[in-house]
Design goal:
about 140 residues, alpha+beta
Amino acid sequence: SMDDLSAYADGSFDLVVSGQSIEHLPVDAADTMLQGAFRVLRPGGWLAVDTPNARVTRVKQAEFIDPDHKYEYTVEEMEEKLGAAGFEVVERKGLNLAIRSLEEKSFDTAEIAVNVGLFADVASSYLMAFICRRP
């Protein structure tokens, strides 16, 4: 389980990656996972997390796009969660810009499909990615 890193010694990794997975955990288990990632990283180690952006996914439906998701975070919620686990957010990027979908309050898959790349406007992107460092 990704929220049980007890098999790994403290400070045993330089990098932990959580790709499109934290949203599949209940909120408390996500906190446990991030605390575990912090523990197993060496000082100066890196955490990379990407996840859907609730601000955009909730345009399509009030709760979640994917019924397998336990919770989808906004940029602010994710940054608060990462900080609470002890991480310093070094960089944040958005993927698949969705400005028109947000303005029109109508999710447009075609817009998401053509607006590929990395964007500084994380809050207006379908996906958000965070590069974090353990101090």
